[in-house]
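$ fold --in a.seq
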Amino acid sequence: MLNRLLIALAGTLVVLSGAARAEVDPDYSVVLLTENFPPYNMAINGKNFAQEDNIDGIAVDIIKEMFKRAGVKYSLTLRFPWDRIYNLALEKPGYGVFVAARLPEREELFKWVGPIGPDDWVLLAKGDNPISLTSLDQAKKYRIGAYKGDAISEYLTEKGVEHSTSLRDQENARKLMAGQIDLWATGDPAGRYLAKQEGISGLRTVLRFDSAELYLALNKDIPDEIVSKLQAALEQMRAEGFVDDILNSYL
């Protein structure tokens, strides 16, 4: 009996030792990817490629502080388009992408840290457009523009709502003003921020049809210990009011 207990204890110590090593591994580093998605993440120079301190935004500020508090190393790169960086995070061990909507169909594809912030889904129209809607079904008779590869575009497809897509979401703001589309399916506050950057204001919310919480999506190969440390750091930041302060500083 004593031998069995010693063997069991030894096995437990090996497991705990392995977990401890994973928790304190000073060399583990996460490759973080993001895109231009103001005001959550954006290149300071406005380009579609940037690294490290040349990237800012609500999510960037939050995630940098989160990794610092968790003691986890990382590299940060902003690239284009979203489809590419999303698939890299999905397929490559040690990679993560943000900000990503945590949808049921994505739930088992990643390990998640968040939420980082909200993203309401809206249909925007020009301020003088009289369109009035109470449901997404009613929008099917209008020309709708969305961002290629984005969760909103995927949602419209699932609901059978035909729409055109653009490689950059701000292109839809220009299409709206040019009369090429009737409605712009986008996020709020992201859509209004992007429109403002294009010199466009006065857009009207015709319908608020869904909402999502935005997260850091991590490749499933990343150790659970790393994910737990990051989540704990974020929760501490939120309790201290750090997350709200960052949100308010941009909006």
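$ fold --in b.seq
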Amino acid sequence: MLTQRDAMTKPAKNKEQTILEAAEREFLNKGFAGARTTSIAEAAGVTHAMLHYYFRTKEQLFERILDEKMRLMGESVLAAFGQPGLPLAERLRDGIERHFDFIMANPDMPRFIVNEVFSRPERYETMQARIREIAGVLMCDIQRELDASADRGETERIDVRMLLLDIISLNVFPFIAYPVIEPILGDLTADRERFFARRRAENTEVILRRLKKCDS
């Protein structure tokens, strides 16, 4: 049963979420420097005073959005290693595809984070700490699996850090570069959805071929 207190707090939570959603769109499209709190308030359907009631400053609102995006990015790195318990090749295939799907669902996030982190170097330290915290143990686990597979002669020996870099680079680049490559590649990019489906499959196969043991 909804209590009077719940009834009072629920609209406040909904209003705060509406502001956050409007702010996310504004910051992703324009970055911190170009974003305007008046535009955010208008998009959220609140007064400028109400926006500042929930979030006192533009910086505070931006930090909330950036922290959420960095958390999601950390989760996407985690997803790039797939589901534990699967055989190595299946785990990596699952991870590469899940990571690509995550970027596909958040195509503006990589460019946003890169732009904002490099404009404020102190944010880079925060991002590094978050990624290390999330990925450190998992990378050690994957490295053990890779080493064991190489010892059995099933795959080439590879540094997990290079593997992660391969996954991130191949999956992120098409989204960051799409406005540039679209006119260059012509009919290949004419159907955006089809193009990214092909890139997803191509990236997966390229990385898995990298692991295959070459015959002497």
